[in-house]
Amino acid sequence: EPASTNELQYSHDFTSSTWTKSNVSIPTVSSIISPDGTANAYDVLNSSVGACIIYDNEIGVSTSDSTFSVFVKYKDLQYISLRIDGSGDNALFDIINGTIIGSDADITPIIKDYSNGWFRCSITHTNLLAATNAVIQFNETGVLNSNGITVTGEGYYLWGAQYEALSYATSIITTTGTAQTRTADSASKTGI
What we know:
Elements: E1 4-6, E2 19-22, E3 28-29, E4 42-45, E5 50-51, E6 53-56, E7 66-74, E8 79-84, E9 90-94, E10 99-103, E11 107-113, E12 118-125, E13 134-139, E14 148-149, E15 155-164, E16 180-182
Antiparallel strand pairs: 1-16, 2-6, 3-4, 4-15, 5-14, 6-13, 7-12, 7-15, 8-9, 8-13, 9-10, 11-12
């Protein structure tokens, strides 16, 4: 695996103030087992109707290829949207069936099944000049770029968010206050 940096300052703690909440309540740790095998997934719910998003706006990446990913599990809403920066940089995922509903131009979406109801949703922007926001957007309609929620107290289980300057998502790099870099894997052997 190559070297990579998770630019998000808090990869697992969605209560951090670096994660801005708009019509979203402060997330709570649930008893749901996350992909790392412990009960540390976050229960993220909307607190009001309308556009409901949670986002990190301290990325500071300027590159042609950037990938934002997060692990998500169904709780109340079947659909979730990820966005990098602008409103036309979305992808929409079905987290019950593990499928991609659609995406905007310049966005390449991927969804991978991690079992036990967990999916890793990722989007790669292939023509990005600068980014300031990594956005998780609630969606109840299954329509791309539709973000109006009509019922309160609904949401998702989230774990392990990552934003990296690569054209694909690598294994999770845990951050707890600053961006972290993982060095490239390497192995060598000399002699017989």
